[in-house]
């Protein structure tokens, strides 16, 4: 993952930073995720998101964004007063993705923009622990590819920094067909859902 991000930074960012038609940003923040269909409630799995993006103004007020980023997704069980697990199929599932978004945003106000689009995620790591303290399972259950929809709202704090709120949702099931039967019917339709709160740093001159 580090190599393609480094290549993107070295070859694309210096070009876009001095272009009048392109904007480039670094971004990073805290993510909170869960999996729809895992019999657990709430965005209980914390993680983080970081990467870089390039935007091209297709017409006045409208910008097309793409880039390369890293994000943690998954889900984590909650426990009651006496240490009992409150539902769910496992204690912890942590999934590591490299993601490529394609978002179209509209500048609704001088400081505020909102947009949405699609993303493609490629899994490069997975940690599954069914019972707390037992350790990682040897079998991976999550598909390598994740495609979904994403929405982002951003508020500009000053010339360089802006605050953003990002939400993403998988379109298709994440579970491998040959393992879903072993995990039970509710698990066969797992979908990532994640919310990220973060900051963007403009590199545009």
Please provide a written account of the structure.
It is built from three helices and eight strands; from the N terminus they run ααβββββββαβ. It is mainly beta and 205 residues long. It has an eight-stranded antiparallel barrel with strand order 1-2-3-4-5-6-7-8. Strand 2 and strand 3 form a beta hairpin. The longest helix has 10 residues. The two termini are 27 Å apart. The N terminus is likely disordered.
Radius of gyration: 19 Å
Quickly give the structural class: mainly beta
Estimated share of beta-strand residues:
over 45%
* Overall body shape: elongated
User: Total number of helical segments?
Assistant: 3
The tally of strands reads 8
Spatial gap, N to C terminus: 27 Å
Mean pLDDT: 82
Order of helices and strands: HHEEEEEEEHE
The main sheet orders its strands as 1-2-3-4-5-6-7-8
List the helices and strands and how they pair.
Elements: H1 2-11, H2 13-17, E1 22-36, E2 45-59, E3 62-76, E4 92-107, E5 112-129, E6 145-156, E7 161-170, H3 177-183, E8 191-202
Antiparallel strand pairs: 1-2, 1-8, 2-3, 3-4, 4-5, 5-6, 6-7, 7-8
TL;DR of this structure?
By secondary structure, the protein is mainly beta.
Task: Name its key features.
3 helices; elongated; 205 residues; single chain; eight-stranded antiparallel barrel
